Amino acid sequence: MAPPILTCFEHSSIPLPSTWSEADSQALDRLNQRVRPALLTIRRDNGGMVLRAGGQVGLVQVGQHSIEIMPKMYRAEDTAEQARQAGRNLLHLLDYALRLNIREHDVAALSHEPLPWFEVLIRIFANHLLIEGQRFAYRTYESVEDELPVLRGKWRVHDQLEELRTQAGR
Known about the structure:
Elements: E1 6-9, E2 13-15, H1 22-34, E3 40-45, E4 48-53, E5 58-62, E6 65-70, H2 79-98, H3 104-108, H4 117-136, H5 157-168
Parallel strand pairs: 1-6
Antiparallel strand pairs: 2-4, 3-4, 5-6
C-alpha cells in the first residue's frame, strides 16, 4: 500500500515521515536540481527533521511519497478544512486565470469527499470530457449492404424488383 498523500502549505513545514528513506532524499535532491527555486527542502527544526515547502504549489512525487503543496488561502483552524478551503480557492483562481469553466457543482463535490487535490483536477477533467463526448458524439446508423442468409435491417423490395427487371431485360 502506498503511503498517504502528505499535505503541506507554501512556506510551511511538516514533519519528515517515518517512512522517508535515503533514496527519497536523493530523489528530492535530483528534483530540486531541475527546478529553481527548490520545491521542498529538508531541514532540522526543534530537534526533528522537517520538509519545508517553497513558494510554489502543486503535487510532487518524491520516491514513494506524494506531497501536495497548497497555497495559504484559507480561514479555517482545522488542518483538514484548511487544505479543503485552499484547494477550492486555488480551483477558483485557476478557473478565472485559465478559463477552465469549472462549474459550482464541481467545486461543491470537493466539500463532501476528502480527495487529494490532483485527483480533484482529474475528476473535473474527466467530467468535462464526458460531457463534451456526450454532446459531440457522432450518432448514426452505418448503412452496410451485404448478402446474408438471414434478413437484418430493412428489406428494400423496390430495389430488388428493379434489379430483377434489369437482369430479365438483358
